[in-house]
Amino acid sequence: MSVPRPSAEELTEGEIPVSAMNEGGPSARVTVAALMSAPLITIAPDAELWEVRATMQAHGVHHLMLRDRGKIVGIVSDRDIAHRLSAAGPGVASRHDDEAMRRRVFQVASYNIASIDMHATIEDAAALIIERSVSALPVTDGERGYVGIVTTRDLLRGLLACVLPTSDTTSAA
């Protein structure tokens, strides 16, 4: 059984920004710009991992961009940090964990950054995320460089808004 797709008239501004619409099916009209988070949260490459984790928690994000001399050079996720920690469990810090959290972020970040243009569709973003096996894509505008980030969670919210336009997808964080 398929879910009927809403027409463009059924998509309200609160669900999918009208400015994000292109030609094609409902989800094909949603651009990355409509779903991305901006501005980018950045951190210096020489920051220690405990600083990275604290910055992520303070901003409620799972990815930070590394900024060196004014230029974005890498990306780090909360999973990059988690992979460096022991499996002792939450709240149980080992000496290994203490040492790991003092490592510099440039040692664990990814530098081959896959990015996407802000005018690309969410299908384009989803395909690139799957192809590159990443959980987030920095978003570019072609002029200023990186202007935001779109994550798998953002794409799922966008997809839900297209398929179930009356659902409250913003509260399902």
Main beta-sheet annotation:
3 strands, mixed
CATH C-level class: Alpha Beta
- Proportion of strand residues: 15-25%
Whole-number tally of structural domains? 1
Helix and strand run: HEHEEHHEHEEH
Summarize the structure.
This protein has 173 residues and is of the alpha/beta class. It has helices spanning 32-35, 49-59, 78-82, 95-101, 122-132, 152-163; strands at 42-43, 63-68, 71-77, 116-117, 136-140, 146-151.
Secondary structure: elements and pairs:
Elements: H1 32-35, E1 42-43, H2 49-59, E2 63-68, E3 71-77, H3 78-82, H4 95-101, E4 116-117, H5 122-132, E5 136-140, E6 146-151, H6 152-163
Parallel strand pairs: 1-2, 4-5
Antiparallel strand pairs: 2-3, 5-6
Helix pairs in contact: 5-6
Features:
single chain, about 170 residues, alpha/beta, CBS-domain, three-stranded mixed sheet, 6 helices, 6 strands, about 30% helix, globular, disordered N terminus
